[in-house]
Amino acid sequence: MSSNDPVKPSRLDPEPLPRRDFLGKASLWAAAATGVFATLGIARLPKAAVLSSPSRKFKVTLPENLPEGQAFVPPGRSVALFRDKEGVHAVSIVCTHLGCIVKPNATGFECPCHGSRFAADGAVTKGPAPAPLPWRKVTVDGSDCMVDEDASVPPGTKA
Amino acid sequence: MVVFAPPPEKQGALRRFFANLRATPARVKDSAFRGGKPNTDRTRSTFVFGNVFLHLHPVRTHRWSLRWTATMGLGIASLAAFLITLITGVLLMFYYKPHPAIAYDSMKDIAFVVPTGNLIRNIHRWAANVMVLTVILHMARAFYTAAYRAPREFNWLIGMGLLVLTLGLSFTGYLLPWDQLAYWAITIGANIAQSPREVTDALGMTETFDVGGLQKLLLLGSDTVGEEALIRFYLLHVMILPLGLVALLSVHFWRIRKDGGLVRPVDAERRLGPVHAADYPVFTEEPRKTYQLAAVVRGKSGAVARGPENTVPSMPHLFYAELAVTMLTIAICVALALVSDAPLKELANPQVPENPAKAPWYFLGLQELVAYSAFMGGVGIPGIVLLGLGLIPYLDREKDGTGEWFGGPGGKALVLQALFVGFGAALAVEAFAIRYGWLREWIPDIAQLWITVFNPGTVLTAIYAAYSIWLVKRHQSTRAGALGLFTCFLCGFVLLTVVGTWFRGPNWDFYWSPSDWPGH
Predict the structure, then answer these.
(1) Assign residue B437 a region: left if phi > 0, alpha if psi is -120 to 50, beta otherwise?
(2) Inter-chain Cβ pairs, chain A and chain B, closer than 8 A
(3) Which one of A152, B131, B237, B351 is CB 3.0 to 4.6 Å from A134, fit for a cystine?
């Protein structure tokens, strides 16, 4: 058999990939990969690396004559401050249900949006709130109080 | 001497120029509307398929589809309401500025300074309300005439997508005025998005898997409702959701034709009876069209080989009917806009919630459920309802009653019974929860997971599900169960909405009438 004879392809040989097939497949894979990466990029964009919310740590001076059991809500803040013989404590006034601002009343707090009621220590007594109002960290420095709305402390912690 | 003279056939160019100029208006008209006046069968056809906007319609429409009771025009009314919101919405964008510092002021400008601004805003608001109502009614029509059955299953799913987008458009539009109502409705809405935390907290896995927190963060772009949230809602409201809606709408309309036109009973021809002599002649011969495209692809193809067609030309029959419904929708929206102003409360105040803080009427049923459990009312039960609605066409594979109002085993009697069960159960559960309270009041230390799983909303859902399973057994038909379940959920939706709208006052307490509300 001379070397010029064409080799008959066997039935078992893999079929050669025609150029057009290769181009088609390559563009299909390129499209799929682009789709995946573009989706990932788009999905990443709306979640900002830095949030624009203001600092939630602040200094406040309680009124001299704040009666025991009476809440003091610093303007623009979402905690209620109380002072008694054991010290000062801060209870969050953001409802744990759907984020409305609860109102201090004689027995604790009430939420205007869906009727949750809380005891003075923040425990849920009625309504749909799934969790008690958290207590926030307070440090007393002379007549000033430092309140950190981002730091929670176990209920009953007073400063 | 050589005199320049063009050959005789090229002379008179100026005359021809003026002749062409005179003929131009007529020729522009002819080239734009090639078919000519739609006054013959042939030109009536070209009128439809020669026009990009009209060609989503069939050239000929079945006489059954034109009956008032077949659709009540609800789909077209929804579309008309959407187009009204689209036009008035673009007009409002001339003046509205999406930033918390000036959004409210620009709303005041629209209401008091911009000529016709208040009217346009009122029309926008009323058209949005009409759209929600007609979309829900349109869905009920499609359900009760069993129009979701094969081959229209997928169009039912597209329709559900349109319902969700419609509600999304309403919700996002709610924040834009930046008044008290807007601010607190969106605070509540964003916290509903966060409510999966109710479950992850209970299971102690929020630290590692906080899907609720992520949803709220993506929606607001921050942890409070502020400028990031406003620009996001604006973007969703004026761009992302409308584009999605238009895309789905196109598919929805296209599929109506591809699925063989509007649903009709198998014996529609017999019921319609002979054509009235005064009517336009109806084409009733065997179809002699060639369906070459349909022939080369396998599978079902539209209306081929269905025997006598019993159709009339869409122009004028269908188009005039659609135009009438559109004009009626516009009239209703404008009339409502003239008698009732869209609300604009005080400037948003993040320190003092509205009391009561109420969402728009179509969300008050959900708000009623949310007042029992945030997760179940806001995510769980709506999810179950959507899943159930989506499964209906794939579970009900029956043929009985397609295209008939309340068609299927049981029929009208069953729907009437389901109305009693649906209203009765909702009323009983609501009355019990209002009179006796719920688990938290009885056992203050109970784990939240118990309330999430077992609350008035889930109890009501369970009653409805049990009733519908009983119906399936009783009538030996999935359609019977679906009829019962759909009717029950409609009753629950209506009753909860009514309670949320008229019987809930400050602190979401129950009051027989708003005149009993305490002053505050």
Answers:
(1) left
(2) 99
(3) A152
Tokens of B482: 């679906």
Ranges of each domain in chain A: 16-52, 57-153
Q: What are phi and psi of B494, to 5 degrees?
A: -65, -45
**Spatial separation of the C-alpha atoms in residues B128 and B167, rounded to whole Å:** 9
Ramachandran angles phi, psi of A61, nearest 5°: -110, 125
A23 touches chain B (CB under 8 A): no
Q: Three-state DSSP class for A144?
A: strand
Calpha distance B499→B368 (Å, rounded)? 8
> Is B42-354 a CATH 1.20.810.10 domain?
yes
pLDDT tens per residue across span B241-255: 999 999 999 999 999
Q: Tens digit of pLDDT for each residue in A87-112? A: 899 999 999 998 889 989 888 998 88
Q: Phi and psi of B260, rounded to 5°?
A: 95, 30
Q: CA nearest B93: which of B185, B179, B176, B186?
A: B176
ipTM, interface predicted TM-score of the complex: 0.81
Contacts of B190 in chain A (CB under 8 A): 99
Q: Is A127 on the interface with B (CB under 8 A)?
A: yes
Q: Which amino acid is at B62?
A: H
Burial of B67 (0-12, 13-18, 19+ CB in 10 A): middle
What's the CATH class of domain A57-153?
Answer: mainly beta
Domain map (residue ranges) of chain B: 42-354, 358-520
